[in-house]
Amino acid sequence: MPNIYLRVPVYVAAFYRNRDEKKHLEKAEPVEFDELSYEAWMIRQGLRPDRSKGQLTVLCYSQQSWDNIVKGKLPYGGKTIISRDPASWPSPSEICTLEGRQLKLHEEMFDYLCIAAPREALIGGNVVRVTKTFALDGKTAQKMGNHLRNEFYHYFMEWCIQEHRIFRSKGLTITKAEMMERFYAQYDIPMRPDARNINTMRILAKRLFKRAASALPNGRTPIKGDYFDYVGDGMKETDEAYFGK
C-alpha cells in the first residue's frame, strides 16, 4: 500500500517514530494508525489525488511525488535535478531545491513523517481506492499536523507528571529542563548542537511547556511553577481553584 508524507516539526516526527518501545521506526517506515482512530478517520476523509503542484510549501506529499524526490527529481517527475542516494532521507536543503524555494533557517525545524495510507478514501460520499497519487488536501494536512502536535504536547505533559512523581517518591527533585532533556533522549528527538548549554535547555524547556500548556483543553493556562507539586499530590488537574475558570 502507498504511504503519504506529512510535514511536521522534527520533534513530532521523531516522537511518532519512537513511541513504541518495542519497535522504533526508521524514517522511511510508515507510522500506522488504528483504522478506528480519529487520525485514520481524518486521513480517509482528506485523501485526494495530489493537486499541490505550484504550492509554495507542500504540507503533504503523495507516494509518487516522494519517490520522485528521493531520486532527485521534481515532485511531479521529469529529469534529475540533483544527484543523490535514493536510499537516504531527503534533507530540508534538497526538498527546498526541488520545490524551487530558498532554504531558510526555520526549514531545519521540519521533517516529513511517513504515514501508511488506507486502502480506500471517501470523496464526495463515494468510496475510492487509494493509489500512489493520493495525498492529504491542504486543509486536512494542516489540521492533521496540528492534531499530531497537540497529541505530542499532551503526552509530554503526562510523561513529565509521571517523571516528577517518580523522583518525588524517592525524595529527589528534577527541573523542567532536565525532564525535557530526558524525554528527548528517550524518544531520540534531535537537539541543536548548542543544546547542552544549560541556559539553552532552560529556554527550550520554557518554550515547550508553554506550547504544551496552550494545547491543554479548556484553555487551562498558564502552568504555574508549582504545577507538578500540585498534581503530584493527587489533586485533580481540572480544579478551578488552581487553573481558574
Task: Give a verbal description of the structure.
- The chain is of the alpha+beta class.
- 43% of the residues lie in helices and 15% in strands.
- The strands form 4 sheets. Strands 3-1-6 form a 3-stranded antiparallel beta sheet. The protein has a two-stranded antiparallel sheet with strand order 2-9.
- Helix 2 (38-46) runs antiparallel to helix 5 (138-169), helix 5 (138-169) packs across helix 6 and helix 6 (176-186) packs across helix 7.
- The chain is globular and about 60 Å long.
- Residues 230-245 have low confidence and may be disordered.
Key structural traits:
245 residues, alpha+beta, two-stranded antiparallel sheet, 43% helix, disordered C terminus
Short description, anyone?
By secondary structure, the chain is an alpha+beta fold.
Question: What is the secondary structure topology, with strand pairs?
Answer:
Layout: E1 3-9, H1 10-18, H2 38-46, E2 47-49, E3 60-61, H3 63-70, E4 73-74, E5 77-80, H4 92-99, E6 110-116, E7 120-123, E8 126-129, E9 134-136, H5 138-169, H6 176-186, H7 198-215, H8 227-232, H9 240-243
Helix pairs in contact: 2-5, 5-6, 5-7, 6-7
